[in-house]
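Case study.
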Amino acid sequence: MREVVLHTDNLSVGYRTKKETKTLMPEINVELSKGQLVCLLGQNGVGKSSLLRTLLNLQPSLSGGVYLLGKPLHQYSNLEIAKHVSLVLTDPIQTGSLTVRDLIALGRSPYTAWTGQMSKADWEQVQWAIDQTRLNYIEQKRLYELSDGQLQKALIARAIAQEGELVILDEPTAHLDMNNRVEIMRLLKELTKTTGRAILVATHELQLTLQLADQLWLTNFNRPLVAGTPEDMALEGKLEETYYHEGFEFDIKTGRAAIPVAENKTVRLDGEDNWYFWTKNALRRIGYAIDDKADISITQKGELQWVLNKGADEVITKSIEELLGYLEA
Amino acid sequence: MPIETATQKKVWNRNLVLLLMVTVVCFMLDLSMGSVRIPLSAIWTDLMGGEIKSSWHQILLNFRLPKAVTAMLVGMGLGTTGLLMQTFFRNPLAGPFVLGISSGASLGVAVLIMVGVSLGFTQSAGATALAAATGASTVMILVMITAMRLRDNMSLLIVGLMFGSVTGAIVSVLQFFSQAESIQSYLAWTFGSLGTVTWDKMWIFLPVVSLGLVTSILLLKPLNLLLLGENYAVSMGINLQRTRVLIIIVASSLAGSITAFCGPIAFIGVALPHLTRMIFNTADHRYLFPLLLLLGATVMLCCDIIAQLPGSEHTLPINAVTAILGAPVVIWVIVSRGNLKRFF
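After joint prediction, the assembly is written out as follows.
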């Protein structure tokens, strides 16, 4: 039996100014359950951040409602929400002198009195959050000393220390390197299991979410939000709709964007798999299509050798760079 | 540093006690120094209720003691305002003057001296304080109205600076059309003075500054949360609007009352929070605040001692001392500690 933490009822997200009402996302009906990793995908500017802000009561909804543990969100005070929902935002942290442990300890503030005095139980919760995120090795470091990846994990630990049923993250992997992106997404998945929380992530990590997310929320311009497992979304063609872009094709399975290039020359290519793949990749970049009847031919000779036949000439090269040099000459 | 273990607590206590002792020593020295040098032993006897030379007793009671108390209140008040502003705006350059409050006070005084006097008002110390307070609170109300309408602090910071520029410009216009004597007497006020708060004014000055300092204690936890920025602070349950209003009221009344009574004392408000953070290496306001109070009191007492030019008949304006001696100290601390960012 799934335990629903948050659900929406015909929620409409957008802005209302004196002059006009701009709806970004109409009629959203979704729910978040404990122990689930839900990823919110969509292009820049589609309204992901607005949706998150509305779910957090930081921005008024245009119509419809958000329910936290079955109760309308607007009936909660700020402090009560803080006890159920914690955040990781994209806002830069401008306090370098805090230690990682200090930062995580701030997560306990909804539970401390006006003096901010931490109890032993509060410190235990901080330690638990540190253990869960495996930050023990840097807990005494100051924030200005951390790499972007470490800082992001520390912010996640702070959110975990804040307890509650739901953690919401806004693009936690933006400007991280590949390893850190994988590690952060894996950590979030792991945390849904170890802490039993619902975790909602707005992200652009399509490939990782396909592997890790329990649910996808797909957003599109001028279309209702759709939710479901990644596989259903793929089979129903919803993912393709979300990632449709004029000018190039996007392969959902590989995450590879096929960028069209003007292939106005042809070449014949023979060789084993890996060699063939990368040579073709390079040839395509400089405008060569593969054609068995072409006048120019390139064949593999040895593991890293290219034999180029151009009319009567034959050249043997030891790198693709060298090969391209001859072709473009 | 979070104070979690007994050892950390011990270090903090030790720092606090050490600093308290330094403050007491500076306080005694400040009472002793001046155009008439009063030996420390005599001060001690007097404080304990013993008999000393009656002229010394008069000097101590009516001049030195209120001046030393004022120095401490100024140091504590301006330091606290600086801390509030720096955390609130997340800007290391923020200080008591960013909201335009002090400029408002200056405008009040300028209007009194350059316009009021010619209309028959007298330029007594009391009238000056009143004029400064009126100017400061007018700007404070304007800032509050603006703060209600603006969502982010950065805009508020810029608006505050604009208020400052406008009031500064009005003062310039007034100066342009004024007699040399009134300009000089306005300039004399801008030099700052700790000696204007006599006992009869102390009964206003002391409660106002104390109230501001005590109210700051309520703000220590929200300030810690604001270290991560407004959005995070709200997500951890603070009432942002209430916190903003309280911070502005406390900062304005501290900066406003101090400027009203002692003139626009420069620099201390920006420098003290940095000095405290760098010396004691903590970002936690709950531990920073008491240290800042003591350090603020100590620094202002030292500035006053130097302003007396011990051994000479002359005194320097307090504003000159805070800047000429204070700025190099801060530069030295920053350079020797490396990057300011590590401590902010």
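Observations recorded in class. The mean pLDDT of chain B is 86. Residues 69-342 of chain B form a domain with the ABC transporter involved in vitamin B12 uptake, BtuC fold (CATH 1.10.3470.10). We will return to this complex in the next lecture.
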